[in-house]
Amino acid sequence: MNLNKKSIVDFIKLCQRVLHVSKKPGREEFMNVAKITGIGVLIIGAIGFIISIAAQLLGQI
C-alpha cells in the first residue's frame, strides 16, 4: 500500500466533514427506518423459506 501523509490528512478531513453534516435521527425517523428494515428482513426470510420448501418438495419427486 502506498499511503502518504497527504492522503491520510485528506481522508481525515473528509471524515470530519461527513460527521459535521450528519445528524442524529429523531424518534419518528428512527422508528420508520426500523419498521422498513424489519419488513425487509421478514420478506427476505419468507422468500428463503419458500425456496427451501420448494427445493425439498422437488427433491422428493
List keywords for this structure.
mainly alpha, single chain, 61 residues, 2 helices, elongated
List the helices and strands and how they pair.
Layout: H1 5-21, H2 27-60
Question: What is the structure about, briefly put?
Answer:
Keywords: Cell membrane, Membrane, Protein transport, Translocation, Transmembrane, Transmembrane helix, Transport. With 61 residues, this protein is mainly α. It has 2 helices and no strands.
Low-confidence stretches: none
The main sheet comes to: none
End-to-end Cα distance: 55 Å
The share of residues in helices is over 70%
Overall structural class, as computed from helix and strand content, comes to mainly alpha
Please count the beta strands (DSSP E, at least 2 residues each): 0
β-strand amount? under 5%
Mean pLDDT: 89
Q: What gross morphology would you assign?
A: elongated
Q: Please provide the ordered H/E string of secondary-structure elements.
A: HH
Tally of helical segments: 2
The oligomerization state is single chain
Please give the radius of gyration in angstroms: 23 Å
